[in-house]
Amino acid sequence: MATCLSNQVKCVGLFIPTYHDISDVQGAAILIESINSYKNYRIIDVDTNRLREKGEHITKEMEDMIILMLAQNQRKEDQNMSRARMYT
To answer: Which residues contact 46 (CB under 8 A, 6 or more apart)?
Structure first.
C-alpha cells in the first residue's frame, strides 16, 4: 500500500481481524463479500454461505472447548482447596 500511495496509484486495503494459527473461514467470507461489493463487481464467484456456516461451527466448537477447559480448571481448584483444608 505504501508503494501505491507513494506512486499515486489508487489502492484499497482490506484487513480482517483473526487469531494466529486458527482457521478463519468467516474472515474469508467477509473478505470475498467485501471484494464482490466493491463498486458492485462480482469478482469472486464463491458462495459464502457455506463459509459462514463452517465458521459458526468452528466458533461453537471453540466455545465448547473453552467451557470444558474452564470446568476442568475449576474442578482442579476445588480439589486443591479440599486437600488444603484436610491439612489445616
So the answer is: 32
**Which residues form the domain of 24?**
2-86
Residue 23 to residue 19: CA distance in whole angstroms: 8
Total count of domains within the chain: 1
CA separation for the pair 73, 66 (Å, rounded): 10
Residue where the block lists cell 506512486 = 7
The two counts, helices (H) then strands (E), for the chain are 3, 0
pLDDT tens-digit profile of 32-58?
Answer: 888 888 766 667 778 899 989 998 998
Q: Is the pTM above the cut of 0.70?
A: no
Neighbours of 24 (CB within 10 A): 17
Which residue, chain included where needed, has cell 459464502?
48
